[in-house]
Backbone:
């Protein structure tokens, strides 16, 4: 017997006032969302802040979601727009926080070499390309799902994934040799 | 479906890039993160409720100001002895309405406290 309500059912419950239903939505999507944002934002703390803000914004604007079964795409679209807004001010903040980040990384478990290399390679990609890669290659989304979430034409997403993959493989030294 | 739950793509495990994407996992269920989100939602709910109540109070004040000339005329026509009972009556009605609201919805205080 399956006891896993769909996103649409949980959205309906949240609209009826259920905090437990919203907590389930958070549990269901937080991992994928935070991974996506870490890849596009480049900084773990920034990414988790944006993820939290995105969930709160989703709760606030849930009444405007016309297709509850597409909650995931809608949530990621919200997060992507917040991430782009945040990146415009992130450069200034990052210069100020760089010393603190260095201290924080030594206090916590160090990032793997592969993780660092990936982040540096992703940072060289244009933001739309980076987001398309993060969803399609890393997250397993279809091109159509990514196009819906990022509000981009399908052909553009396919192009971003193809070009982004080539650039990543070149930067990381993998693929055809 | 499970590949989406884990955030990793099973279909491309042979993809050399996949090893890089899998290098930094995020916990599947992060209770601390979820608690942070729900706390932020509760704060947002409180702010929205306060904003609505402030707006409702403002509307009530504006309506009473607009009705003041008519109410004043009505009170002047009535016997002065009725003024005090009328004030008491309106006060009791307001307390009943407030009490019904608290008994149905409780009184939410900052910090997540709730008086029922």
Residues:
């Amino acid at each position: 017997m399956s006891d896993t309500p769909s996103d649409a059912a949980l959205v309906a419950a949240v609209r009826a006032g259920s905090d437990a239903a919203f907590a389930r939505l958070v549990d269901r999507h937080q991992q994928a969302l935070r991974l996506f944002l870490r890849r596009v934002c480049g900084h773990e703390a920034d990414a988790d802040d944006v993820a939290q803000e995105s969930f709160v914004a989703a709760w606030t604007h849930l009444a405007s979601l016309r297709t509850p079964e597409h909650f995931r795409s809608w949530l990621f679209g919200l997060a992507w727009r917040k991430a782009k807004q945040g990146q415009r001010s992130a450069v200034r903040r990052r210069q100020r926080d760089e010393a603190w980040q260095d201290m924080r990384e030594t206090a916590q478990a160090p990032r793997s070499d592969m993780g660092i290399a990936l982040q540096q390679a992703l940072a060289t990609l244009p933001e739309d390309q980076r987001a398309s890669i993060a969803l399609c290659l890393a997250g397993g989304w279809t091109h159509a799902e990514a196009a819906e979430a990022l509000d981009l034409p399908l052909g553009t997403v396919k192009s971003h994934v193809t070009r982004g993959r080539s650039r990543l493989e070149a930067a990381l030294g993998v693929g055809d040799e | 479906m499970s590949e989406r739950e884990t955030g990793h793509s099973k279909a491309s495990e042979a993809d050399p890039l996949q090893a890089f994407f899998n290098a930094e996992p995020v916990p599947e269920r992060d209770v601390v993160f979820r608690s942070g989100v729900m706390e932020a939602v509760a704060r947002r709910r409180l702010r929205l409720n306060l904003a609505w109540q402030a707006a409702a109070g403002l509307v009530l004040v504006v309506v009473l100001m607009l009705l003041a000339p008519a109410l004043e005329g009505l009170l002047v026509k009535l016997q002065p002895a009725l003024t005090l009972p009328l004030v008491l009556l309106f006060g009791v009605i307001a307390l009943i309405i407030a009490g019904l609201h608290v008994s149905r919805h409780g009184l939410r205080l900052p910090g997540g406290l709730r008086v029922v």
About this structure: The CA atoms of residues 54 and 60 of chain B lie 10 Å apart. Residues 1-12 of chain B have pLDDT under 50 and may be disordered. Chain B touches chain A through 34 residues (CB under 8 Å). The beta strands of chain B are 107-108, 114-115.
